[in-house]
Amino acid sequence: MKSFHSIDGSIVAPRGFLAAGLFCDVKRLGTGKGSDKGQKRDLAVIVSEVPAKAAGMFTTNQICAAPVKLCVEHIADGNAQAVVINSGNANACTGPRGLKDAHEMAALLADELLLQPTDVLVGSTGRIGLPMPMPNIRTGIREIVKELDDDPSAAHHAAEAIMTSDTRAKEIAVEFKLGGQTVRIGGIGKGAGMIQPGMSPTGARPASAPLHATMLAYLTTDAKVDARTLRTCLREAVASSFNCITIDGDMSTNDTVLILANGLAGNKKLSASDLKIFQAALNHVCLELAKMMVRDGEGITRMVTVRVKGAKTQKDADDAARAVGNSALVKTSWHGGDPNWGRIIDALGYSPAKVVEEKVDIAYSAAGAKALIHSLKKGRPTKATFNTLCKAVAPAEFDLHINLNLGKGQATLYAADLTEEYVDFNKGDITNPASLGG
Amino acid sequence: MKSFHSIDGSIVAPRGFLAAGLFCDVKRLGTGKGSDKGQKRDLAVIVSEVPAKAAGMFTTNQICAAPVKLCVEHIADGNAQAVVINSGNANACTGPRGLKDAHEMAALLADELLLQPTDVLVGSTGRIGLPMPMPNIRTGIREIVKELDDDPSAAHHAAEAIMTSDTRAKEIAVEFKLGGQTVRIGGIGKGAGMIQPGMSPTGARPASAPLHATMLAYLTTDAKVDARTLRTCLREAVASSFNCITIDGDMSTNDTVLILANGLAGNKKLSASDLKIFQAALNHVCLELAKMMVRDGEGITRMVTVRVKGAKTQKDADDAARAVGNSALVKTSWHGGDPNWGRIIDALGYSPAKVVEEKVDIAYSAAGAKALIHSLKKGRPTKATFNTLCKAVAPAEFDLHINLNLGKGQATLYAADLTEEYVDFNKGDITNPASLGG
């Protein structure tokens, strides 16, 4: 039984958090005056009214954006109180100037909020390689602090401001009890393209890291949690959520998940059972945000949960799921509603995972359901008719179950189809450079 | 200076080879009578009039089609005299029956040609998981042997018969001198989709194998070459041609390259310098066929030769090239004519290859040309204008040069853009199952 329930307000649902989002014309390098002139918001701020513990997970891409480098540095002490995020420019591959710009963003917000710059974190998403339009950002930061509010509409504005190719804002909050106290976790996120995150706490690539958008997620909680516990909990939550999604198999230079925990719920030090409840709630928030990203992926029409079990090792399970979830041919067959198990087993066969044809089971179920319709058992087609299998893969969301029958390795990957719209969107229009994607 | 020149006739250009291609209705499981009724040909035979030495390279996909298993077995002794190939059905994941069917195909042709079944090789390409329509195949093999001919039109019919989603037949032949004797090498091939071959001589995956259509290529030569030398030469030629192409990053269950060498040129045992000439000619034949496959890849509008140098290791160079050449975002930008170096460096950064942002050079040139237009030097954008870079990536074929400046590893990958047409073709039409792709 779930020990938490959903509430409104996303990142301002926990006590003591304020947010804002406005338009400062990051992308067009124009003459934005920091006010929302009916244009898409592109600057967000999240702030805790009191000092907070903080943890983060960052892209393991070797090409890593300036704001990510800043966050790794500023979060090392486990403390942070505010985040400033822009969309429209990734501030990636921008050299020493980019790093200086990221630090200026932190310093400007710190100055406005009377914080230490090292207690401010920065996030950016958009096209790679362009200098940050700092005049616009400076004006924007001066303006946005006047709009900070704990009203859900303020959180919604922040969620809108971090969107790039997203078609809708991604927000969630839950409430639960920890030792008698009411605790809340809220979050906002953005995804859409360049999505196959593989994040670690320092951005360093562990030997075992999945090599695989910009996805950004910002979490707030009023739970009282020490920094080390917060880091452990975030790492676990990200491992089974954001690090398990793929839209196009491209890992971004900017992937970032941050959590601020300001302790205003006033709970006692977490007991082992409290910790389980907190972890479960955090896992839920992260997984729901992650799934929102897949559902709103660029041009996608279907989300497919690839559930691999029976792999020889855990790594094999992950490799097998990613080979299937990133195969152009599998993804296009999903788009066509074609239950083409041949392409699935082909992808399994070229994955690094150990696969034995005569042992492979492939089945479908409704999303999250247990009743399976097998297309393949022990490598041989079942008697399920083409029409039956077509019905199984027709819904906008369904589960694909793969049992390699070789061991105990399991993995779940939230994947998407590949559509003409994805191609059309990402090929862009070179006659209108401002329209080109990240 | 090239020591060879192009001639007509492809696989029948070398002395003593016959070919044929006809329609026997493999795909529709219909009532084909083995005659070409104006339908697309789908059965091909290539035969040497005298016993020949033979070598092959086969998919390293762990899920490996029945005809591949048969070839590995029949070619082990270095001898073969004929090949029978069908399109429309891959005979993959067809269990013991599929293997029996492949063996029956070899036995039927052997029977007609008075050969040993073990001297007959088999190839199949098409949808995975469907039983072979053996009645049609049996009639087809009986009919096709009557049409065997050494006229170039017969070779062209064979080249047509192995096509699936290919829009045109792929044929080549060259002639050169070996120790005073005129020697010829001819070849036909097919590609189009599920193309990122990684072949080895036994289909076993070497530790260092690239983990990455059905592509089929059949080569003939009248050179006198012993089986071991032939195998070594083929392996080297495939390593720098077919194993260096990617259309969609999906490695097939059926990839196969075969060569038959019947010795009718009457050359002496190859000297070291002869061997170089033979290898150069074979490399040329394989590379030209491989490039024809990329140019005719499903829906593609651009072929991009990704040339990586300065990688820390050879494997790093290959990994870097494949990360770029298989990135959905890089491929869609190529389709759009967008010189988006941000997506390229992003892909390099998440590849397993060691990459240091401050060292990366990215440049373009006309296909095969030396004059480079840099978009990035040492990780920083050059002064090349957006329009200049757009012009560089506008041609249907261009080269992308990446220098990681970390070592001596080099790799070349022939890659393609990703288009709406690719998606539309491969999503298929489930209301017409016979139209669905492999």
Please tell me about this protein's structure.
Two copies of one chain form a homodimer. In chain A, 30% of the residues lie in helices and 26% in strands. Chain A has 438 residues and is of the alpha+beta class. Chain A folds into two domains: 4-295, L-amino peptidase D-ALA esterase/amidase (4-Layer Sandwich), CATH 3.60.70; 303-418, ArgJ beta chain, C-terminal domain (Ubiquitin-like (UB roll), Roll). In chain A, strand 9 (216-221), helix 5 (227-239) and strand 10 (256-261) form a beta-alpha-beta unit. In chain A, helix 1 crosses helix 2 and helix 7 (314-325) packs across helix 9. Residues 29-36 and 207-213 of chain A have low confidence and may be disordered. At the A-B interface, helix 8, helix 9, strand 14 and helix 11 of A face helix 8, helix 9, strand 14 and helix 11 of B.
Mean pLDDT over all positions of chain A: 90
Number of beta-strand segments of chain A: 16
Q: Name the chain pair whose interface involves the most residues.
A: A-B, 71 and 70 residues
CATH class category label of the largest domain in chain A: Alpha Beta
User: Strand-and-helix sequence of chain A, N→C?
Assistant: EEEHEHEHHEEEEHEHEHHHEEEHEEH
For the termini of chain A, the CA-CA separation is 41 Å
Overall morphology of chain A: globular
Our Rg estimate of chain A from Cα atoms comes to 22 Å
Treating each run of at least 4 consecutive H or I residues as one helix, how many helices of chain A?
11
- In the CATH hierarchy, the third-tier topology of the largest domain in chain A is known as L-amino peptidase D-ALA esterase/amidase
- Classify the secondary structure makeup of chain A into a structural class: alpha+beta
Residue share in helix of chain A: 25-40%
Low-confidence stretches of chain A: 29-36, 207-213
Number of domains of chain A: 2
Provide the CATH architecture of the largest domain in chain A: 4-Layer Sandwich
Proportion of residues in β-strands of chain A: 25-35%
Outline the biggest β-sheet of chain A: 10 strands, mixed
